[in-house]
Amino acid sequence: MNKVQILVIEDDVAVGNLITTTLEMENYQFRLAKTAKQGIMNVLSYNPDIMLLDLGLPDMDGLEVIKKVRSWSNIPIIVVSARSEDQDKVKALDLGADDYLTKPFSVDELLARLRVTIRRLNNSQTISVNESVYENGDLTINYAQGCVYENGHEIHLTPIEYKLLCVLAKNTDKVLTHNYIMQEVWGSVQGTETPSLRVFMATLRKKIEPDTSNPKYIQTHVGVGYRMLNQTEKKED
């Protein structure tokens, strides 16, 4: 039995059956809630490791669920919703969701998103043991020294590029919205800073990516933001 416990908040019977059957086949432990209220109560009493959340719930919008849960819990939240517009994804991620899966989805994609989230949970536990050094494939960040290395060679970054890289690294495998990154790096969110973010991200990629036409570290989510990909896990796979 997989020790990871998953809470599914989904009112659509067919989708709920698909998700729970998939989890059962993969030996995940899970519970199903069909309303926002039931879901929130389950987070409080059941203490799950991951939440799969529909946004179109009968008693409360899923965005409100994210907001409420984030006021007291850091549980990873994967949104599973029919809302496919970029602004919906950005809202959910800005409120604290960790990932966003659009309906209809394949079983393989659902399981892949779960594996990514579980890896991030495991990574956060590993990094806390040695917070001064971050390693991801051939990329190394020595936080104590403020130095970055790629394949053993030191890379000279500007202060902004270094802050960008650290924000992405500390959230490996998590999609970060433009607004979140700008808040963390510049301390504010203004539309005029979005072009600056793109420019700095481009220069950062040129310095750390062996092949900028096929980036292996920083993945772009068009209209949403960026994600630091976990290269260590890819090598193990």
TrEMBL record:
The keyword Thylakoid does not apply. One of its GO terms (cellular component) is protein-DNA complex. Residues 131-230 form the OmpR/PhoB-type domain. The modification 4-aspartylphosphate is found at residue 54. Residues 131-230 bind DNA. Pfam families: Response_reg, Trans_reg_C. One of its GO terms (molecular function) is transcription cis-regulatory region binding. Transmembrane segments: none annotated. InterPro entries: CheY-like_superfamily, OmpR/PhoB-type_DNA-bd, Sig_transdc_resp-reg_receiver, WalR-like, WH-like_DNA-bd_sf. Residues 5-118 form the Response regulatory domain. It comes from the Bacteria. Keywords: DNA-binding, Phosphoprotein, Transcription, Transcription regulation. GO terms for biological process: regulation of DNA-templated transcription. This is Response regulator receiver domain protein. It comes from Holdemanella biformis DSM 3989.
